[in-house]
Specification:
mainly alpha; five-stranded mixed β-sheet
């Protein structure tokens, strides 16, 4: 049907605001009376009133330009559209000249399409086609204006009528709905700009750099269309649908773009190119580019992982039970559940899988794609019909929402008044009936969407949708991330998207990206469950970015989700272990070892294997690195078992100590060989004696390594090559041993080594002759030095017999009677001096707090010295030494449990009060308490009891014993 628009208009619905309509009519009546078109206004007003009453934007256009309204009403809408497009194409001149006319023409186009749509004259295809064709013309006019300016400056040498376009070599593709002639009423336009370097450089003046030229052209073009002036704007322009937009210029060289898509292009980018269409600039270059992209977009063969990755575009959206939580108020008609995106994804995912072999399925328009899929037998006709009808309904509602204020929004108003205005434009006077209709549409789409790839792995989360396709953040995904506990959802979404783009080694390969698509929702869900989402994600990002390759690790995490959750829990609560993974991602390899989760007390043979590997290393530095790699993996293993509750404090202490023993047993011979290489062989023997927590087998992840070296050699002995004395030789051995145990190499470090517990402390020789040891303790040693010796344990000796002699000598020193010594008084005075010089730093200073571990250890060492003098049994174990002091033993035991958890988690001294709830709960569980508040109360009680016992056992000097 043809003819003037006015007589063909039908009222779209009720007049929601009679007063608003009256005000518009008053203004229009004045204009109509002055220009002689009162009859046209009167005859069309019944159809115009509902529109202008509901839409401030459309009424504003009519009141500002009543003459344009008259022209629209008196002309055939198709003829008027053609005239608008012709006027747009005819614009000439620089940006400032065409800026205002473009905006006037856009306003008229908007008024025309809105009235033709709402008045029932145009269907959806005519409406979206009109907006899309005007977008084409406006973009082309904008590029022509840019070229006009550049020719004026002398930078562009091409003629204005060059058949290759205004700027030969430069072309733009309309993407998304623009490319498919499906633009919505207030849509922005997605333009992807590219250039052919050789063609462009040939038409630029000498000295003009091509990339800088096109970047500036894109900036001016986008500004010309997007800038808001007193006349409004033309289109918001989005240039981000280009290869890796965060790291590439706004206009990408075509060869570089093709290389990107062939190497790291993602499936959502393939989906975007389904609708791509050359729209401006060098048409031959654009056609060649799109032809070159055909194999990328339409793959003739897909392996199973690739198909799963395509399906993931759909499966990232959370599908609820039908009707669950779907409400009209506030519904996002585009991105929300049951919205337009679900219909588009329904079609596009199947097109990508099937379209490589069947060109009939490559339709860019959604309705055409659904029809083609139905005709080919891939979806049932009833499904195609239902989704097409819903698509038309939702697009119509989307237009009406946007017509209210010319806003790029897809959300139905939350308030009843705003939603009633949309309902009126949609022909509905009853808001409840309108809401019910909208909800039925959303529920139907969501149901059909859930049926697609039904039974496949879910790539959303119990928290909601997790969609990371496209170049902008999905609002529902950001809401999901917020519910998960992330304080900066945008940062998390941007990071995930960058990983999808292959910006880290783990996702650089196609297989790596396919695996990550499946891993991402599990990662975010598991991170959320830690209760420390920000910390866990930040530390995982450091680890994941540091992987040299990611296929094996991601496959492992997907195959063993419980293991994955365990690792993320470690990252959430243990900065020490997280840093290990961040600096040395290969530490995760230890998880692949079948021995990783075995009981820590089980002999896995690893230490003997380590000693053998070091022995065969043949080089001192190689030997050091062998030990460091094993040490790092085992420290990670022990820490994980502590944090997950698989290992208790005693087992952890033994495991940490066994690891230190293994390092000393492996590096002792290597240090001796190094000393012999430097100075020649030396007759005699040497031993390493562990002191402190290493001696008592009670080490934590935070423990230093206290040790002394003891040797025996004939006084006149000299080394074979350099003639070193035993003192020099074994001092060099000790120095090499310290270097082996404490130096940082490319593989990291091992321990802080402390030799100050040797006879004479820091003033004495670093290596002690066995005879000197006995003599020192017989004449010069203070009580505190005997106390430290109660935990001495020989770890390694160059000769087995010498090991026994050293152990015997230490026991003899401890058992030698000291009738002149006030042992209890000395122990108490030392503890008081320590209290004054190194006071406790608070209730979480487990060592120095009153009733803490130092109190308990002093009691244990006092008991040992007392038993030694009377012939009683000796032990290096603190708890065994405290067998007769249950209150003190209980306090030490509880705080050792806490120390193990805190030590493996932190390198510094944290305040558990400020740590995440999950970590506080783990502390409580380690101590055998139900929750953190109970732990604090119980800790106070056992400390008070232990301190009272301490005061009884070791009263202040002068109070008696």
């Amino acid at each position: 049907m043809t003819g003037p628009l006015g007589p063909r208009l039908k009222p779209c619905g009720p007049v929601r605001d009679v007063e608003a309509a009256a005000r518009v009519l008053e203004r229009l009546s004045e204009a109509a009376a002055a220009d002689g078109w009162t009859g046209v206004l009167d005859s069309t007003w019944p159809a115009l009133a509902p529109v202008f009453a509901a839409s401030p934007y459309l009424s504003g256009l009519a009141r500002r330009w009543p003459d344009r309204l008259r022209t629209i009403l008196e002309a055939d809408p198709s003829d008027r559209l053609a005239a608008i497009l012709a006027d747009t194409a005819a614009l000439e001149g620089p940006s400032e000249v065409v800026k205002a006319p473009l905006r006037w023409l856009k306003a008229e186009l908007h008024l025309l399409t809105a009235l033709a749509d709402l008045g029932g004259v145009w269907d959806l295809d005519r409406v979206t086609g009109a907006v899309s064709r005007f977008a084409d013309a406006a973009a082309q006019a904008a590029l022509a204006a840019v070229a006009y300016e550049q020719r004026g400056t002398g930078k562009l040498l091409a003629a204005a009528d060059d058949p290759r376009g205004p700027v030969p070599g430069l072309f733009g593709l309309a993407m998304g709905k623009h490319g498919a002639f499906e633009l919505n009423y207030s849509s922005d336009i997605d333009l992807s700009l590219f250039y052919e370097p050789e063609t462009l450089e040939a038409v630029l003046a000498p000295g003009v750099e091509a990339q800088r030229f096109v970047n500036r052209a894109a900036q001016v073009l986008a500004g010309l269309l997007s800038e808001r002036t007193a006349d409004g704007y033309v289109f918001r322009v989005d240039l981000r649908l280009r290869p890796d937009p965060s790291s590439t210029p706004p206009v990408v060289a075509a060869p570089m773009a093709l290389a990107y898509y062939e190497s790291v292009g993602q499936n959502w980018e393939r989906a975007a190119f389904i609708k791509a269409r050359a729209v401006l600039g060098d048409a031959p270059a654009a056609a060649a580019f799109l032809q070159a992209l055909t194999p990328f977009v339409w793959r003739r063969s897909l392996d199973f992982p690739a198909i799963l990755d395509i399906q993931s575009i759909k499966r990232q959206i959370h599908v609820h039970k039908t009707g669950d939580g779907l409400e009209a108020a506030g519904a996002n008609l585009k991105l929300g559940r049951g919205g337009i995106r679900e219909i588009e994804f329904f079609a596009q995912t199947q097109q990508l899988i099937l379209g490589g072999r069947d060109a009939a399925l490559r339709a860019p328009r959604t309705a055409d794609a659904l029809k083609a899929l139905s005709e080919a037998g891939h979806i049932r006709p009833v499904v195609a019909t239902e989704l097409t009808r819903s698509y038309v309904d939702l697009r119509g509602l989307e237009h009406r929402v946007q017509m209210l204020e010319d806003e790029q929004t897809h959300t139905l108003p939350q308030d009843d008044r705003g939603r009633a205005a949309v309902a009126a434009l949609a022909g509905e006077a009853d808001l409840a009936r309108f809401d019910a209709r909208v909800e039925r549409i959303l529920q139907g789409v969501n149901r059909r969407y859930g049926e697609l790839f039904e039974g496949e792995e879910d790539l959303s989360s119990p928290y909601g949708s997790l969609v990371f396709t496209g170049v902008e953040n999905d609002p529902e995904t950001l809401e999901t991330l917020g519910r998960m506990g992330f304080s900066e959802p945008v940062m998390v979404a941007d990071t995930i998207r960058s990983w999808h783009h292959g910006r880290i080694p783990a996702t650089r390969s196609a297989r790596g990206r396919e695996l990550f698509t499946r891993l991402a929702p599990q990662l975010l869900t598991a991170v959320a469950r830690t209760g420390a989402a920000d910390a866990a994600f930040r530390r995982f990002a450091v680890f994941f970015s540091g992987l040299s390759a990611g296929v094996q690790v991601q496959a492992l995490f997907l195959a063993q989700p419980q293991l994955f959750e365990m690792v993320l829990g470690v990252l959430a609560f243990a900065p020490r272990l997280a840093r290990t993974l961040g600096r040395y991602p290969a530490a995760l390899d230890s998880i692949l070892d079948a021995r990783f989760l075995r009981d820590l007390d089980t002999d896995t043979g690893l230490m003997e294997q380590l000693i053998a590997e070091v022995a065969s290393a043949g080089d001192f530095e190689v030997a050091m690195n062998v030990v460091r790699r094993v040490h790092r993996e085992q420290m990670f293993r022990i820490g994980v078992q502590i944090l997950t509750g698989r290992a208790g404090a005693a087992a952890a202490g033994r495991a940490y100590t066994a690891l230190a023993d293994g390092a000393m047993r492996a590096l002792g011979p290597a240090a001796l060989a190094e000393a012999e290489r430097m100075g020649g062989t030396m007759g005699g023997a040497v031993a390493i004696v562990a002191m402190g927590k290493a001696g008592s087998r009670e080490m934590t992840a935070a423990s230093d390594l206290d040790l002394i070296t003891v040797y025996e050699a004939a006084p006149e002995a000299v080394s074979g090559d350099r003639g070193w004395s035993p003192e020099v030789f074994y001092s060099r051995f000790t120095q090499r041993l310290i270097a082996a145990l404490s130096s940082h190499t490319a593989e990291g470090g091992l321990y802080e080594v402390d030799l100050r517990l040797r006879p004479g402390g820091s003033k004495g020789p670093v290596a002690v002759r066995l005879g000197t040891l006995a003599d020192y303790y017989a004449s010069d040693a203070d009580t505190w030095e005997f106390m430290t010796l109660t935990r001495a344990r020989v770890v390694w000796a160059s000769e087995p017999a010498f090991r026994d002699r050293v152990a015997t000598a230490i026991e003899a020193v401890l058992r030698r009677p000291r009738p002149e010594a006030d042992v209890a008084g000395d122990v108490r005075r030392m503890r008081d001096r320590m209290d004054q010089g190194r006071p406790s730093r608070g209730e979480w200073d487990l060592k120095l707090v009153r009733g803490g571990q130092v109190d308990a250890e002093f009691v244990a060492q006092f008991r040992q010295l007392t038993r030694a003098a009377t012939g009683g049994d000796l032990t290096v174990s603190t708890l065994e030494a405290l067998a007769g002091d249950p209150q003190v033993a209980e306090a030490w035991r509880m705080q050792q449990r806490l120390a193990q958890v805190i030590g493996c988690a932190f390198e510094d001294r944290p305040d558990p009060e400020t740590e995440p709830e999950g970590f506080r709960q783990r502390l409580a569980e380690a101590a055998g308490e139900p929750d953190f508040p109970t732990l604090k109360r119980r800790l106070t009680e056992v400390r008070e009891s232990a301190r009272a016992a301490f005061e009884t056992i070791l009263p202040p000097p002068g109070d008696g014993i």
